[in-house]
TrEMBL record:
InterPro entries: Cyt_c/b562, Cyt_c_II, Cyt_c_prime
Gene: cycF
UniProt superkingdom: Bacteria
Pfam family, one: Cytochrom_C_2
Transmembrane residue ranges: none
Organism this protein belongs to: Paracoccus acridae
Protein name: Cytochrome c-554
Gene3D superfamilies: Cytochrome c/b562
Alphabetic keyword roster: Electron transport, Heme, Iron, Metal-binding, Transport
C-alpha cells in the first residue's frame, strides 16, 4: 500500500501522471494513515529472506527490533503534514517525496533485501 501511493506521487512528480492536487493529498493521507498501523508487528519471526524465498525481510529486523520500530516511526514523522504540503502545484511534490522517501530508504537499507 505504501508503494502504490508513493508510486502515484512519484509519477506526478516526474510528469508521467498529470498533477492532481486532490489525488496527491489523498495519496499522502493514505501514507499517513498507514503509518498509524503497527506494521512492525506484521513481521513475524521466521519469515526472513533467509527462511522464505518470497520474503524481502532481512534477519536484522528481529536482531534489532527497537531500531526497526524507530525507523518505521521515522516514516510517520516524515509523512506528517504531507497532505497539505503537496497542495499548490507539482513543484511541491519533490520535497515531500524526498522526505518520505528518505525515511523509506533508511529502513530499506538495513532491513530489506536488495533487489
Amino acid at each position: 500500500m505504501l508503494g502504490i501511493n508513493m508510486g502515484q506521487l512519484s509519477g506526478m512528480a516526474k510528469g508521467e501522471i498529470p498533477y492532481d492536487e486532490a489525488a496527491a493529498s489523498r495519496a499522502t493521507a493514505n501514507i499517513v494513515a498507514l503509518t498509524q498501523y503497527d506494521a512492525p508487528a506484521l513481521f513475524v519471526e521466521g519469515t526472513s529472506s533467509e527462511e522464505n524465498d518470497d520474503s524481502d525481510a532481512l534477519p536484522a529486523i528481529w536482531e534489532k527490533p527497537d531500531d526497526f520500530r524507530a525507523k518505521f516511526a521515522g516514516l510517520a514523522e516524515a509523512a506528517a503534514g504531507s497532505p497539505e504540503a503537496v497542495q499548490g502545484g507539482q513543484d511541491n511534490l519533490g520535497p515531500v517525496l524526498q522526505k518520505i522517501g528518505g525515511a523509506c530508504k533508511a529502513c530499506h537499507d538495513d532491513y530489506r533485501k536488495a533487489d
